[in-house]
Amino acid sequence: LRSHMPNRSHRMSLKSLPVDLNNTVVFTTGNKGGVGKTTVTQGVLDTLLLNSIPYFVAQVDRQDRLAQMNQVEVLTILSDPEVTTIDPESEFRRFGPLMDLIIGAAGQGTAVIDLGANELDRFCAWAKLSDLDGAIGDTNQNVVALVVFNAEEQSIVESRKSIEAILDALSLAQVVLVENQRFGRISDLAPGSDIAVAYERELGPFVKRYPKVTVPAVRGNSYQRFEHRRLSFGAVAVMSPAQIMGITGLGMADARIARGDIAKWLEVVSDQFEHLLGLK
């Protein structure tokens, strides 16, 4: 896979977290839909794969995109609002397998948990009830919480709430801010605009305290052609032009450009995660 990525290095100011990836739990969160949590999670998985780090995956969501995109077993925990209305205790019971996956991964690799939209509060309530913090402490696992947001006011507000909730439930968590730039960049906001003011008010103090990763938009929106096939970024990056032509209907030149766009995105994102997780 790495041989298909552009051979460029990035000067990163990102400080590495003190983690052992053979004994780490990574949560991806941000209590709003559509901000790119699963995209970020997939970027983490592709980075671990590039570096031959064993990983165990869970997705708490009504969608099972990670299970479809990866050639590994994914623990998928679906929500069912009707069932939880009839039997509220089932809301907590459904999280039970997460404990087994997390503790089972101790010393074996990285557990990666994608918490879907509107799931964080329920997860945190369960985590406190089950003393997940204590269980993780017993195994000396590192905890990393990737809080994803974009240049949208509600997303920014919810991200601040997400940071507070995850730290309340998991005192061991090391928070990382992740700006998804697919629909715009915080740095491009007009000073004094409602969103810029919200960013400074809600996340400004955290930006000074925690590391921040930026996930750029894929050039030319090239990945959109592959989303319906539930293909990972890494899978597309190693495809032949003929395979891409068959999937997308593109001509040879455009197929090579699309692959290059996605490989470049993966190179930029994995470079940051490699720095963050101490792999570089």
How would you describe this structure to a colleague?
This protein has 14 helices and 7 strands. The protein has helices at 37-50, 65-69, 81-86, 90-93, 96-104, 120-130, 132-139, 153-169, 194-202, 204-209, 224-227, 233-237, 241-248, 252-276, and strands spanning 23-29, 55-60, 74-77, 109-115, 142-149, 173-180, 212-215. Helix 2 (65-69) links the parallel strand 2 and strand 3. With 280 residues, the chain is α/β, with parallel strands linked by helices. The longest helix is centred in the last third of the chain and has 25 residues, at 252-276. The chain has a 7-stranded parallel beta sheet with strand order 3-2-4-1-5-6-7, with helices on both faces. The chain starts with 22 loop residues before the first strand and ends with a helix. The model is unreliable at 8-12 (pLDDT under 50). The relative contact order is 0.18. The chain is 47% helix and 16% strand. Helix 1 packs across helix 14 (252-276) and helix 13 packs across helix 14.
| Mean pLDDT value | 90
**Strand residue percentage:** 15-25%
Number of strands: 7
Output the radius of gyration: 19 Å
Distance between the termini: 17 Å
The chain-level structural class is alpha/beta
Helix/strand order, N-terminal first: EHEHEHHHEHHEHEHHEHHHH
Stretches where pLDDT falls below 50 for ≥5 residues? 8-12
Compute the number of helices. Answer: 14
Q: Strand sequence of the main sheet, in spatial order?
A: 3-2-4-1-5-6-7
Global shape: globular
Specify the helix fraction band. Answer: 40-55%
